[in-house]
């Protein structure tokens, strides 16, 4: 589903050059649940952003679902992200002025879906994460765990083939973290491919495969 070949990422300023990723080669298969671990600043989030087409590599090849994306324009990349990828972030990124239901519908706005279809899909996604009774609430009325479940519902509302999760349990206590991981495992059991950045060894051990990074390189 996601293939990276000889990927490098270099950040440059007028006075310094930083190698964030060094010769990364990965092949995430359909239906896998993969975790990425490593010390702070090792390139985990940079790698996830490149896998999610939110950032471009300085060098190397990226394939999503067998399609090489190096020649894609910004509009084509945005369409591919919207159709195939769902994103979950540590800090939720919910819009406080919108209800839970409206937050979950956001990805569907870019598909020009009808209001009826948006409501049906958003309601279905919220039911999957156990928040059908909170649809009319606003983010400020929710706990951290509930906000993350809304974020997961937003990630899955378009029925993506791949979910990329950046520290999805990082702001939660262990009990709520386990609950969020259980939701991700259920999605994976239903066929969704998941790549998760985590700092938690216990969480990583519950996934199919662990990728370790150190100073921007894979630890083999």
TrEMBL record:
InterPro entries: AAA+_ATPase, ABC_transporter-like_ATP-bd, ABC_transporter-like_CS, MacB-like_ATP-bd, P-loop_NTPase. SMART domains: AAA (SM00382). It comes from the Bacteria. One of its GO terms (molecular function) is ATP binding. This is ABC transporter ATP-binding protein. One of its GO terms (cellular component) is membrane protein complex. PANTHER family: CELL DIVISION ATP-BINDING PROTEIN FTSE (PTHR42798:SF6), LIPOPROTEIN-RELEASING SYSTEM ATP-BINDING PROTEIN LOLD (PTHR42798). Pfam families: ABC_tran. Belongs to the ABC transporter superfamily. Macrolide exporter (TC 3.A.1.122) family. Keywords: ATP-binding, Nucleotide-binding, Translocase, Transport. Residues 2-219 form the ABC transporter domain.
